Amino acid sequence: MKDHPLFRYFRSSYFLFVFSLVSSCSWSSAYLLIVKTEASSSSSSSFTCWKRGHLRCSRHRSTTLQARKSNARRRGCSDVLHVEKGLNERGFHPIIGSDESGRGCIAGPVVAASCCVLIDDWSEYTPIEGVNDSKMLSSKERERIFDRVVSDPDRYVWKIAERSNQEIDDSNILLATMECFKESIEGVAERLTDSQHRPYSIVDGKKTPKLSVKGLPCRPFVKADANVYTVALASILAKVSRDRLAAGWAESYPEYGFDTHKGYAVPEHIEAIHRYGPCPIHRLSFKSLKGR
Fold first, then answer.
1. Cis omega before residue 220 (within 30°)?
2. C-alpha–C-alpha distance, residues 44 and 77, integer Å
3. What is residue 43's DSSP assignment?
4. Distance between CA 115 and CA 202 in Å, rounded?
5. Contact indicator for 164, 109 with CB cutoff of 8 Å
C-alpha cells in the first residue's frame, strides 16, 4: 500500500490541489496526473537545487561588488599612486591621465579630459580624498573633487575638449573621441614649459590618439580610471563637465529627461524619441536614430 503512487502523493504538498481535481474528474484521470507529477519530482528537486545555487552565486557576486566599491572608496591611501610613482622612478614626470565621458550616448557631445599633477616627488603629495573612477562616485563627490582640481592651477594642469553630435555624425564616434583625447593631451603638454619635464600620457581604454608632440609617450590602459590616479582625476573632470552640459539640455528639451540619463540610450529616452522624434543634439548616425 505504501508503494502505491496515490498513497505517496497524499503525503505531498499537492494533496489539496489533487483533491480539487478529483471532485471534478474521474479517478483514473487523477491517477494519471499523480503518476506524471511523481515522475517530475526529481526534476523539481533539481530545479530547487539550481535555484539555491543561483541565489548563492548572486549573493557572492553582490558581496564581491560591494567589496570592490568599498575598496574603491578608500582612495586616501598612498597605493593609489603606484603607477605614477613607478613611472617617476623611470624618469617620467608629470604623468598625464586622460579619460572620456559620453562616448556611448546617443545625444550630446563626447567630452575628454586630461590632467596631471605638478609634483617632482610623489612621496610629498597627499592624494585628494575619494578620487576614483567617476562612475563609482556620487555627483556630490565628483563636484567636490572637480572644484578642488580647477581651483588649484599651481598644482594641477588640465584641459577639457569636446566634439559635438554633428561632428560625431560627420566622422564617427571613435575618430571624434580620439580627436578629443589628442586636443586635451596636447593642451596639457603645451603648458608644461619646464625643460626638466618629461611627461608621460596614459589614456583609459584600448586605443590612443596620434599625438603631434614629439617625445611624448602615450599608452592605452584598460580600466585606468580605476587604477591610475591622474586618469581618475580626468574621468571626474570629463564627467562633471558633461553632466553640467546635460543640465542645460534638460532646460532646452525637458521632454527627453536629459537631467536623469545624460543622453544614454535608456528605455525612457528611447520612448521619448519615439514620441517626439529626435532633437537637435541627438546623434542621428547612431543605430537608435538612423532614418529619423
1. no
2. 51
3. H
4. 10
5. yes
d(CA 213, CA 220): 17
One digit per residue, the tens of pLDDT, for the chain of length 292 reads: 555 555 554 455 444 444 444 444 444 444 434 334 444 444 444 334 434 444 444 444 334 434 444 444 444 444 789 999 999 999 999 999 999 999 999 999 999 999 999 988 888 899 999 999 999 999 999 999 999 999 999 999 999 999 999 999 999 999 999 999 999 999 999 999 887 889 999 999 999 999 999 889 999 999 999 999 999 999 999 999 999 999 999 999 999 999 999 999 999 999 999 999 999 999 999 988 876 6
Asked if 258 and 107 touch (Cβ cutoff 8 Å), the reply is yes
Separation between Cα atoms, residue 108 and residue 162, nearest integer Å: 10
Query: How far are the Cα atoms of 161, 202, 212, 231, 290 from residue 182, in angstroms, in the given order?
Result: 9, 12, 8, 15, 28
Please name the residue ranges forming H helices in the chain: 5-10, 15-22, 27-39, 41-73, 82-89, 139-150, 165-170, 173-190, 229-252, 258-261, 267-276
DSSP result, 192-239: ---TT-B-EEEEESS------STT--EEEETTGGGT-HHHHHHHHHHH
Please give the Cα distance from 261 to 77 (Å, whole number). 32
Tell me how far apart the alpha carbons of residues 21 and 9 are, in angstroms, rounded to a whole number. Answer: 14
Q: Which domains does the chain have, with CATH numbers?
A: 5-39 (no CATH), 80-289 (3.30.420.10)
Q: How many residues does the chain have?
A: 292
Report residue 74: phi and psi, to 5°. -90, 70
Does residue 255 contact residue 232 with C-beta atoms inside 8 Å? no
CB 156 within 8 A of CB 114: no
